[in-house]
Amino acid sequence: GPSSSEGAGKVSLLKKVPALKDGDFTLAECTAILLYLSRKYNTPDHWYPSDIQKRARVDEYLSWHHANIRASAPKTMWIKVLIPLFTGQPLPSEKLQEVMEGLSTSLKQFEERFLQDKAFIIGSEISLADLVAIVELMQPVGVGCDIFEDRPRLREWRRRVEDAVGKELFFQAHEMILNIKELSNIQIDPQLKEQLAPVLMKMLK
Q: From its phi and psi, is residue 124 left (phi > 0), alpha (psi between -120 and 50) or beta?
């Protein structure tokens, strides 16, 4: 998301995080960063396959993801934790219901169009597409919206992703998300609240 810090402006022309600085080279946008790192460090082929059609399937999911899963899942965190933290006021329950309905539609498409009866999004092996998806889908879980509970196919896919990554690393990577409610207890600088509250509200529109 957007950042008002001077440091973010030096690393990312878009003044957004995440951002990458690799020597004199800087890069914004999480998907671009993932692809750059996979190419630079010559990661195992299953993450971003050399096979042109498998790679295209990863690209297809990543393109769809931004306007669907990413458009809904993180909003659960903003509604239940971040916006109340910065504004001091809870949002109406109708707002969360609206977001959850949109997310439910996206999850149905995710299961039927991308996951189908495969172990992972592009087949029998985990890829960057699965990593991008799971990070987003753990955000509702962190604020008490267990989207996996009544979706056995989605739940089994999550289990396979955990196993492929390694459970310890998986929960280490998602530790901040799963403990996001603890932010409700911290004190926020009033000036920072004033700066960020309108930005967060705008992101929900």
A: alpha
**Residue closest to 91 by CA, chosen among 76, 80, 77:** 80
Taking alpha carbons only, the member of 152, 150, 180 closest to residue 74 is 180
Q: How confident is the model at residue 63 (pLDDT cuts 50, 70, 90)?
A: very high
Whether pLDDT at 1 is above 50: no
Domain boundaries, the chain: 1-43, 50-204
Give strand ranges (E) for 156-202. Answer: none
The architecture of the domain spanning 1-43 is 3-Layer(aba) Sandwich (3.40)
Helices (H), 43-82: 52-67, 69-77
The string of pLDDT tens digits covering residues 157-200 is 999 999 999 999 999 999 999 998 887 777 777 777 777 777 76
* Both tokens assigned to 17: 């995080």
* Tally of helices (H runs) and strands (E runs) in the chain: 11, 2
Model confidence pLDDT, tens digit, residues 88-126:
788 888 999 999 999 999 999 999 999 999 999 999 999
**CATH (residue range 50-204):** 1.20.1050.10
Burial (CB < 10 A; 0-12, 13-18, 19+), residue 76, is buried
CA distance 31 to 128: 9
Give yes or no on whether 1-43 and 50-204 have one common fold: no
